[in-house]
Amino acid sequence: MRTIDFKPGQRQFALNLVLGISAFVTLSLLSPAMAQTSPAPTLGIQHSNDRATATTPTWTALPGAGKDIGAGGPSGALWVISTMTAANGFSVFRWANNAWMGVPSTGAERLDVDPQGNAWIVDNKGAVQRHDGSKWVPVAGIHASDIGVGADGSVWAVGSQPFDAGGFGIYRANGSGWTQMPGAAVRIDVDPRGAAWIVNKLGEVFRWGGNAWVAVLGIKARDVGIGADGSVFVLGVDDKVYRWSGSAWVAREGSARNITVNAAGVPYAVTDAGVIYQGVK
Asked: Is 3 a residue whose pLDDT tops 50?
């Protein structure tokens, strides 16, 4: 493993749910003041596929439109990267008082939420920043393409430089800089014990075993999300939702492009069309 020291001054899920209905409504996130506060519609889902069948609603649409979403912290803090353009990506919003509230930023492409309920973002230049509750603080020493924060505070990132056929380099924050870990990935999240789960460019899923990556077989995935309770969800290359049972991947209703999981194990997802959904554990 290679350790990279921080250098002062450096910065840094549609649910195309397979619905038994013919249409759905996309609620555009225009501004915090226009965020919908009325109860969101609840969607019932049925699959002809015998892997996943639902007779009760499992996903509820939230107002707004997003590109990525993150949840975390004991109070279930929810952050979203909207579809509104910003200088270095897209505007960032936080769910508060049943509405999306804008959080001033220069923009973001990817995000996750730490144990304190604050967002860590990656912008379109690879710069990483974390929110301290009042402002964005640059995180030096890395240019990233994805970020993951565990319930124990462990921070892992996927770099921005190609590493091998699996994607980009993998890094772990060590308190004073970043340590390059073995392997390569395109998506990352972190479990409650501080171990990263990754998806590589080939769709393979691995978890960090302490000394080496351990393959988690039975799935080809696009994204991974982990809750503080240990719940692990992925989006397959078929864009469908799967939950890890501890020994196998179990198909869930719906499909999406980006996914996150809150501390209670409840998944949230964003569709290709930008629709934001809250699932059930």
From this structure: no
